[in-house]
Amino acid sequence: MSVTAAKGFTAAGVIAGIKASGRPDLALVVNEGPDAHAAAVFTSNRFTAAPVQWSREVIADGRLAAVVLNSGGANACTGSAGLADAKQMAEWTAAEVGCDTTDVAVCSTGLIGVRLPMDAVLTGIELARQDLATTGGPSAAEAICTTDTVPKEAVHTSPEGWTIGGMAKGAGMLAPALATMLVVITTDAVVEPDALDAALRTATGFTFDRTDSDGCMSTNDTVIAMASGASGVTPDAAEFSEALTGVCADLARQLLADAEGSAHDIEVRVEGAATEADALAVARAIARSNLFKCAIFGNDPNWGRVLASAGTVPAEYDPEHVDVAFNGVRVFVDGQLGTDRSEVDLSGREVLVEVHLHAGDASAAIWTNDLTYDYVKENAEYSS
Amino acid sequence: MSVTAAKGFTAAGVIAGIKASGRPDLALVVNEGPDAHAAAVFTSNRFTAAPVQWSREVIADGRLAAVVLNSGGANACTGSAGLADAKQMAEWTAAEVGCDTTDVAVCSTGLIGVRLPMDAVLTGIELARQDLATTGGPSAAEAICTTDTVPKEAVHTSPEGWTIGGMAKGAGMLAPALATMLVVITTDAVVEPDALDAALRTATGFTFDRTDSDGCMSTNDTVIAMASGASGVTPDAAEFSEALTGVCADLARQLLADAEGSAHDIEVRVEGAATEADALAVARAIARSNLFKCAIFGNDPNWGRVLASAGTVPAEYDPEHVDVAFNGVRVFVDGQLGTDRSEVDLSGREVLVEVHLHAGDASAAIWTNDLTYDYVKENAEYSS
Fold it and tell me: Domains, chain A, ranges and CATH?
């Protein structure tokens, strides 16, 4: 049920005609209240798409009544005309929903540098308004897909009576400081905007920010959280934060599992680091090595490429005392050959690479994919 | 003639039996003097291969009489036993050539983590000693190849009577702060070690350090320059430095042109930057974007991916005033759509991507390749 799992939300996904394919391409998520609390995090890319510029402005007061999302066009690098289009989407949505224009966030995804067909967008907003329902989550999740092969949804229900639900899209440009994606999360918990913002930043920091499919950062990344307060329950802050992180982690895993052309989901876990920052830097370097990613595609537990990548990072560790394990098999131990690499089975989709630095107690993981023929095919033939 | 183009050098390349394929795999380059001046730069990877550790030590006094090189095994991540093997190679070479062990540099390339077959190495050194000749450059260049499809050689002859010649190998792990490779450069100019070192660092800084095929840094990168002084001519320092840079640039271009599976040679040139460091950072970010590299493979002048990559760099520029051109066609001008992308022809092997930041007068370029099916194939199926 994703974004309509929590009480106080309606949603819809419709065919607006933005995509040439005729597939669903416009979604609306509306917070019916009583609260209209919201928080959001956005791409740190400097070429921020027009909808990101708009949404960043309107979220500043911690209030949102609705989010309108479209696939089929990113409305990025479209100049002042594109920004006017984003604002127009908010105005039309506000008029349909009956709220202030500045309480509507806008998200777009698709090809960069192309203006949106605004006639189709208007039609879509009107259609979506008519379809708004407390069962509309799945159709909204479907309408934001681009090269995604499946919609991504996640729900957490607390025994105390509140719920968090979310939807995500993203299949390429999955990169750090927000994997490329649009995410909308809703909750009926009673949460003030500041607390929601803090919980959201914690959650994204531990999940989407550590998801790095191809090292490429999008211009449109947006994660929006809205709290309706409709459950009437004020959750424990730590419990809410943990649950929100769980929902984000669930969505992040779904994004990676559906990443363009990938054949393996890889967790690169660095342990024994002096600091968490060191662990992250080493894990990130490994996760971004094309040679390493090709080796995993070839089911090759190539610890040499793991070390060669780790060796580019100025973290605190002694290169002569490092361990590397693939799926639990320690092929390199304390700077020496360990168990023979033939013992490693990489034929499954899940791959765990563990690097122990023997420099402290900190650890961190980055989630990534392998580099495959299909990744090249999709990104050489599909313009985005 | 590569490394034997300059007077005072002999070389040989032989089949030692290190490679299972039975192809040439051991090379020797000997400086017959009168000078034995030398300089070298090495990988900055922290997992430095044993031969790099050895060579870094012996080059400290600015003297080399010979370099022994093998393909078929990188002798990297092989611990103290591997370091002993590298020293043994120097000892055997010194005994054959008749020089001090500490005047012999060692270079290895091939699979990481495997000990070298030292019997074969000894046989190779003996054979190479017998074959040493002033015409041996080409066979030496051939013997250091791994996945290279052609040997790489370059020569510069000065009208003043001195010559610089060089050979290089490298087809994968071509990355910054030394593209992955072994390079030996010889000159018969009279150049003191300090001057040679300075010229070499300048040359590599402008050439190999700006060559970034796949962002992966090797454990074995080595560039060695030796000066015999046999021409009797002391060149002008600036002229020598420029010539050495030219030879390195020539070799770097050959490395990229033969990079694993590549279909395009790409120059990413950033102009109008506030500083050269800014220009380099932006060019490097673009050159490392897999999405951008896939687009070039697909002959797609995807300026959106260029901007999305540039947007990750904290360089000084205004995202609303940036130009992007492909092969001279300005498809994005001052933050707006320019000439239609259909005007761009990317069907040739050479691609020039120009980004103008309008933030100053500095510029810099990074040379890279596209990301292709064959890159994935070679690196998924060939372990290195």
Answer: 2-257 (3.60.70.12), 265-381 (3.10.20.340)
> What ipTM did this prediction achieve?
0.75
Which residues fall within 8 angstroms of residue B278, CB to CB, at 6 or more apart?
B270, B313, B315, B316, B317, B357, B359, B360, B362
Q: What is the helix (H) or strand (E) element at residue B84, kind and residue range?
A: helix B79-97
Helix boundaries (H) for A179-231: 193-206
Q: What is the pLDDT of residues A121-154, one digit of tens each?
A: 999 999 999 999 999 999 999 999 887 888 889 8
- The whole-model pTM stands at 0.78
Determine, for residues B217 and A312 on separate chains, whether the beta-carbon distance falls below 8 Å. yes
Q: How far apart are CA A54 and CA A36, in angstroms?
A: 18
List of chain A residues whose C-beta atoms are within 8 Å of the C-beta of residue B172: 291
CB A245 within 8 A of CB A207: yes
Q: How many residues does chain B have?
A: 384
Least Cα separation, residue A286 to chain B (angstroms):
10
Structural tokens at position B16:
């030692």
- B289 min Cα distance to partner chain A (Å): 6
pLDDT tens sequence across A175-221? 433 335 788 899 999 999 999 999 999 988 888 877 776 666 677 77
Query: Which residues in chain A are contacts of B295 at CB distance < 8 A?
Result: 379-380, 383
**At B351, which helix (H) or strand (E)?**
strand B350-356
Contact flag B46-A216 (C-beta cutoff 8 Å)? no
Tell me, what's the pLDDT at B305? 86
DSSP string, B12-54: EEE--S-STT----EEEEEE-SS--EEEEEE---SS--HHHHH
